[in-house]
Amino acid sequence: MSARHSVVVRLAGESGEGVISSGDILTQAAARGGYYTQTFRTFPAEIKGGPCMYQFRLSDEPIWSHGQDVDLLVCFNQEAWDLNWDSLGPEGVILYDITEVVIPDDYLHRARPVRMEALAKEIGGSLRAKNMVAVGAVTGVIEFDTAPIEELVLRRYAHKEGVADANIAALHAGADEAADLKGRYPLVPPVEVEDDRMLISGNQAIAIGAIAAGVKYFAGYPITPASDILEWLSVRLPQVGGLTIQCEDEIASLASVLGASYAGAKAMTASSGPGISLMSELIGYAGTAEIPCVIVDAQRGGPSTGLPTKTEQSDLNHALYGGHGEAPRVVIAPVSVEDCFYATIDAFNYAEEYQVPVLLLTDQGLATRLEVIHRPETDEIELVQRKTSAGMAREDYKRYEYTPDSISPMGIPGEPNGMYVATGIEHNEYGHPGYTPEIHLGMQAKRLGKLEPLREVSRVATHGEAQPEDVAFIGFGSTFGPVREAVDRLRERGLSVGAFYPRVLGPFPVSRVEHFAARATRVIVPEVNYTGQLARLIRAETGIELESVAKCDGLPFTAEAIMDLVAQEVTA
Amino acid sequence: MSTRTPNDFKSELKPIWCPGCGDFGVLASLYRSMAHLDLDPSKTVIVSGIGCSSRLPHFSSTYGVHTLHGRPLPVAMGVKLANPDLTVIAVGGDGDGFAIGAGHFPHAARRNVDITYLVMDNEIYGLTKGQASPTSLFEQKAPSTPFGNPEDPLNPLAFAIASGASFVARGASFNTKALTELITQAVEHKGFSYIDAMSPCVVFNNTQESWKEKVTDVAPDHDVTDRVQAFDLALRGGFALGILYRQERTTQTERYQTILGKAKPSDLDVMLDGFSARKGAAIGKPA
Question: What is the CA radius of gyration of chain A?
Fold first, then answer.
């Protein structure tokens, strides 16, 4: 077989069998070898039991999605086969546990048994090394250098005597299985192995982006799929003189973040839909009292408890409008793992500049997937600091002063002339309660008006034609990757296609979106939810005629699915 | 000697409370205490929730945060953790603290957040015109309990002691001299200090005369360091004014200072190296 530029591998089994850690270790080994990777994982909401799946795609070239047709499917048990067989590509091969799985006759010619359980028991005396046999089998089929894996295994189990050795033995044993498939998928080796590449998840990129932005206070409450941020910052933030605290609930988390920000610290919390719902009242408060803060929403399937471990983009409406009254906020949605880093810095900058809460929307897929990205240029990061009362005379100081740009100097405790009372009750320029028509009209105009410039200056993500004539894709967040790939492939076919991702969805960049879509025959808006929330937003804000493609199956779009949208007429 | 007077802490706004409201006495005691402690107004933050008594920050010429209903404690915690040099005083009413905000109270207490929490307890919802509160008495009649309150009242002092508050006291708005002294000691206390300030609502639940008759002082032989004795005294109810419990314990601020001391200093570049595809540590494990 000739060497390929891309291979898609899917591992499937029971939660608790080490499927996810197998995927992680293979991904990391590939990244060490210089490959680009994209992953997608899905697992049940329970700690043990239930089906889980880890898909990763490897390539010598940059890739933007986790792929659709699976080249190598590894089944740890029967259910894994039952749930995943239809993801196999036409040429895809199957590795399966010989004691657990029965493969239908039609597929037997491209399926090979692996003695996962038997070898694990033989070598390690238990089923624990089953996943390492599977990892070894994968390295046989796609010709992987096992040295980085051994190094990772040694490091991971350094504290447990004998465990590392057993795992490595299992790895080698696995590699010798399915001998006739050996080297079935040789990958084109990476041309140049750059040292500045990182393997990182969306949540980790947000956490380190917050460090880059100068966060000094983080408070959170455990919730899937956002807990990684709390855990990572619990280790890291104290290393740069900041604090991370696990609060009693999401309300206390955001409340304490607002207290810390009031006291002058850059502060952040991270949660998922249910936690964001609890924070709603405080988001309105932050907008009214004009206290900067960053709130990460790693969206999961909703509503209510919903699908805690599945992906969805259904909190857009809540992020934009959640809460009573009309309170200002900025909503930003990073489009890739790399962008999670930069969007977090943008989020802090917007929060500080406009003195507003900023909601940063990711989703389970983006938050938990691992991606190889280029190391950020740290010396190019520009940080914005809030306007304060420093240097002002006390008699001149008005916390909520009407200014030309509607941004008022914020007093910070310790500053002798900036004393004021932050309040969510309607107030005059001094922050004194007041409910006259003049005050309310004036303050609403100030608070909501100050964000208007952002419509024109917010950074956007684009790909392909700046003003496509055939198909214009408008979306938000993690659908950018597959759309980007689809745009490239469609352009290779001679179509005029482009993608425009606003990133900042509130306030919405109306004129720029209209300009982008002005010449397009078709405007397609893909999103992972049921009601087409972005499509509704675009319809409300612009005059664009569009085709809404909303799906909420708990899975991200693939590039192939986006391509199919162009081949067919979408009715929406 | 303090160079400041109580008047220095008065803001230009006059309290909006009804004539005769107990909260006037609490506010006066707070002004006096802040003057006695010679607090720097620019380094003092008064944090409140929502309710009649929660308007208090507006009447003080310090920094202030008038937060949401029930949320003064976590906001106050954030202020104090972000800048431990600040003196942080949370205030509010019994509804704010023990109904909607009750979920935060035990956590502030067990964490020993280094703040003072002053609750103006009138056993009624005043701002919404007289409904029963968590500290209203059994069978008390109110617009929301026309057949008499079917619930037993919550005991804030016992709640505080059980939750781990390291300073627990009861004061009364009509006894400003003693209340001033209690607030002073509470602010000076290292850790979470809780004062239940009996503060009658003369319009919707006028308990002033009966409370005045019933109050006593905590017995001179009461051992404030004995948690069991303090809990016993709190459970008996009654109207003993003074400090019930006081404990020396490391504060949340000190514990976080310890964490900061344990953390190995790092910077952004080192952290980015931890994710290096070529040399990074195992996934999910901080380098």
Answer: 26
